[in-house]
Amino acid sequence: MLVFRPVTEQDLAAVHALAAQSPVGVTSLQGSRARLAERIRQSESALAGDIRFRGEERYLFVLEDNDSGELAGVAGIDASAGFGEPFYCFRNDTLSHSSASLGLSNRVHVLTLCHDLSDASLLTAFYAGPGAGRAGAELLSLARLMFVAGHPQRFANTVVSAMLGVTEAGDVSPFWDSVGRVYFGIDYAEAERVCGEHGRRVLASQMPQQPIYVPLLSESAQLVMGEVGEEARVGYDILYGDGFEVEDYIDAFDGGPVLLGRVSALRSTAASRTWPVAAGEPETGDEWLLANTGTAGFRAVRARASLEAGMLRVGAAAMQALQLGEGAWVRALPCGGEGR
Amino acid sequence: MQARLANPADRDALAAFHGQGFGPLPAEAARDGGAADVLLVLEDAQGVLAGYALLRSPSLAAHFRRGVSVRRVPLAGIDRKLATLTLCNDLCDAARLCALRVAGEGDPAAAAAAVLLGAVQETARREAARFGRRLYAALPGVQGADGDAVLWQALGRHFAAQGQAHLDGDAAALAELLPQHTLYAGFLPAPARAVLGVAGDACRDVQGWLHAAGWQASDYVDPFDGGPVLLWPDGGAGR
Q1: Which of A112, A118, A173, B68 has its CA 20 to 30 A from that of B210?
Q2: Taking Cα atoms as reference points, which of A151, A201, A141 lies closest to residue A50?
Q3: Which member of B71, B176, B184 has the closest CB to residue A98?
Q4: Alpha-carbon gap, residue A22 to A68, rounded angstroms
Q5: Half-sphere exposure (CA, 13 Å, Cβ side) for A271?
Q6: Which residues in A lie closer than 8 A to residue B80 (C-beta atoms)?
Q7: In this structure, are strands B63-73 and B216-221 parallel, antiparallel, or unpaired?
Q8: Torsional sign, CA A105, A109, A113, A115
Q9: Are residues B154 and B206 in the same domain?
Q10: What is the number of structural domains in chain B?
Q11: Does residue B160 sit in the same domain as residue B234?
Q12: What is the CATH number of the domain that holds B48?
């Protein structure tokens, strides 16, 4: 059974191996082993703290096959997208240019560097390895949000996620080549490596504040603006199905869409409910995402369950994976529900 | 050779004149001009028209000012100087040399241009209140094989295509449709960057004549064709 749980120091080697497999655009998984170790320490510290108000906390979780002990994925969430440094992205804007004396006007599509979303919480570091499958990827992605639902004081009312944009063979990003390369003269993979090691602010803060005129970008860059890369398609579908929406923002590096979700409106946060748990094999075959209510001991699984007399009946294996006893509370969300 | 103010008797000779240089034909100049313009003609020793120059008193003018912006990211070993273009009206208080054409080629043409330019500059000195403290000349830029300016194809057409007919008329007003924020030249394709501040082949000699008369290269370029703007006298901004 795949179990979603907080990362621990003992996971460093396995997480490092997963990070090495992840696409270069997953900035928060790039960088050195030392950087990952620091990230793990940050997560352990955040989970150990009695957090009343969100701040700089950064949480990192893993998906573990509890039969083999191998990790199948990693995912994180930052309490504040822009706590230590602004969360930069481009906002799609329209400028109107006119010549009154000639009676002419036109509207121009521009990209404006902004940090409008710095106050939101940020989904990060999502990578589901080949062993996770679609079901595992869904658990990996949405269990984070069930953690948010159980600990709302630790997070903002809005959660954002910068999806990977379109890249071509050799980690070439048409958007970066038309925008970032103009400013910095380095290729996309190198830019992501630099940001993985030092944070995105290192480059993003040096991007000019002036709007970028979209008609001047290469045709291939314009085509991929706001488009999801193939490697992020599953993750995008999961979040979109959960209620995340595409708004006016795109990633400043690869042009991928930045999704926004209101905690009050997401299925995983607004539609998940807590029930007392009853041990025993469920009578129906419906699958649920199930999570305990812990913090450092947070666990989530995907398993069959059924509602019976005000209690959620869950099988023994799931109960054990969730570290729950009879009558404990479990947060539950039916799988394949009314997502879009 | 001598230069003098044009008069109505010059009309036919101006209409028939074909010299090398830049700017509108005399008939067009007469139509577009008026009290704001001064048309100087050059006569040879036989009294034959050998050239003309059209000076226009200050009016709305729009150019790109070329600049540099530095991007430094020491952690990534990045230290770059990036060329920028900023639309400005710095030269709206300067008079514009709209046309300069002389007969002949080579040294004789250069000599004729020197006389005409001397007259232009003397006129500007004498009527400083009318022509301002500086003169400028925007030389035509480089054209592509299709006859359109290389910079227009890369930039102007994206913003002002519906006003292309005004390029030869009220170009300063048309420039209001161009990017109003600083533009990084790196967003232009390499051929367009290469023609910024470069005069078209037909104006290379003119550029030499102007330099010989003390006109200086500037950081300004025409916003539509990227042609160079030369200033006389040099020094200070157009304020």
Answers
A1: B68
A2: A151
A3: B176
A4: 21
A5: 17
A6: 183-185
A7: antiparallel
A8: positive
A9: yes
A10: 2
A11: yes
A12: 3.40.630.30
Q: Answer yes or no: do A182 and B155 touch at CB < 8 A.
A: no
pLDDT in tens, A24-41: 767 667 668 888 999 999
Instruction: Say if residue B13 is in the same domain as residue B109.
Output: yes
Whether residues B1 and B81 fall in one domain: no
Say yes or no: B117 and B139 in one domain: no
What are the structural domains, with CATH classification, of chain A? 2-90+114-268 (3.40.630.30), 272-334 (2.40.40.20)
Looking at the structure, tell me whether residues B190 and B161 fall in a common domain: yes
Interface touch B177/A183, C-beta < 8 Å: no
The domain containing residue B150 runs over which residues? 59-92+134-211+218-239
Regarding whether B63 and B7 lie in a shared domain, the answer is: no
Chain A and chain B share a number of CB contacts under 8 A equal to 91
The last residue of one of the domains, among B84, B115, B132, is B132
Terminal Cα distance for chain B, rounded = 35
- Co-location of B74 and B192 in the same domain: yes
A125 Cβ under 8 Å from any chain B Cβ: no
3-state class (DSSP) for residue A265: coil
Closest Cα of chain B to A96: distance in Å? 9
Please tell me the distance from the alpha carbon of residue A107 to that of residue B112, in angstroms, as a whole number: 48
Higher-confidence residue of B220 and B28: namely B220
CB B163 within 8 A of CB A99: yes
Please report residues of A whose CB lies closer than 8 A to that of B186: 182-183
Q: Which of B132, B148, B181 corresponds to the end of one domain?
A: B132
For the segment B103-154, what is each residue's pLDDT rounded down to a tens digit? 999 999 999 999 999 999 999 999 989 998 899 999 999 999 888 899 999 9
How confident is the prediction for chain A on average, in pLDDT?
Answer: 92
Q: B159: which chain A residues are within 8 Å (Cβ-Cβ)?
A: 97, 106, 108, 213, 215
**Separation CA A273–CA A282 (nearest Å):** 18
The dihedral sign for the CA sequence A26, A32, A35, A39:
positive
List chain B residues with CB under 8 Å of A194. 73, 75-76
